[in-house]
Structures are given as C-alpha cells and as structure tokens.
Design goal:
Layout: E1 5-9, H1 14-22, E2 29-33, E3 55-61, H2 65-75, E4 81-86, H3 95-105, E5 111-116, H4 129-133
Length: 134
C-alpha cells in the first residue's frame, strides 16, 4: 500500500518535495503550503517522480514565474487540477507565458484556480494590470 494524497506544511526547498514524492510512486494529489521555498541545485535524475500525479495545490507560493514553470515542466504532464495561491508579483507578468505553460506542460488540465495576494501593478492608464491580462 502507498500514499495517494500528501499534504506538506512549509517544506524547506523543492528538493525536499521531490525527495518526498519519490517515495510515493502512486501519489495522485499533492498539496503544500510554503511561506518561502528555496530551489537548491540538485539533479532531477536523482529523484523518482510519481507518474499518477493529477492534482496539485500550492498555497503561498513565493517563486518567480520561471521557477514555477520549471517545477510544472517536471511534474505537470498528467495534471488535471491545479490550484495556486501566490505572492510573487512577477507571476502576473505575462498572460501569454501562462498560456504557453499550460499548453506545453499541462495538456490534461481541466481545473485551474489562481489566487494572487499582493499589490497590483497599474498600467499607463491607471487600470490594474489584471484587467489588461484578462
């Protein structure tokens, strides 16, 4: 018997998450809450990642869009559900980047919840940037 659902509070870095899920080959749902999450250089070949991962919930994610995209490129191929709650403002930088990330790395995505907690950037007309992105 193996875990199918894993919830983690405040993992120290992405390597720790990869290490944890490498021991759960049948993991289907992953949820973690991280105030700060560091990326440590460690080859991904060292980790065995689950092939059944269909649901990820990330709360208070504080990585840039590029760091998040790298994570999704590794674990996102079978994702059907993605919920992210982020506080890093560069994650709002480009709607086209989000579209490309989803099309390339999360082709099975059915449900996507996105919560941004932080100041909104104003455009030249004084409108919040979210309106421009949508």
């Amino acid at each position: 018997m193996t875990l199918e659902y894993l919830a983690v509070n405040n993992p120290p870095d992405l390597s720790s998450i990869y290490n944890l899920i490498s021991y759960t080959p049948r993991l289907r749902r992953l949820s973690f809450r991280a105030n700060t999450l560091y990326i440590r250089d460690r080859p991904l070949e060292e980790f065995i990642l689950p092939h059944n991962l269909t649901s990820i919930s990330l709360c208070y994610w504080d990585l840039s869009f590029d760091e998040f995209a790298s994570f999704i490129a590794i674990v996102g191929s079978k994702l059907e559900f993605l919920r992210i709650s982020i506080i890093h403002k560069t994650a709002l930088s480009n709607a086209y980047q989000w579209q490309q990330l989803i099309l390339r790395h999360i082709p099975r995505l059915r449900t996507f919840f996105f919560d941004y907690h932080g100041p909104l950037i104003k455009d030249a007309d004084g409108n919040s940037r979210c309106r421009t992105l949508l």
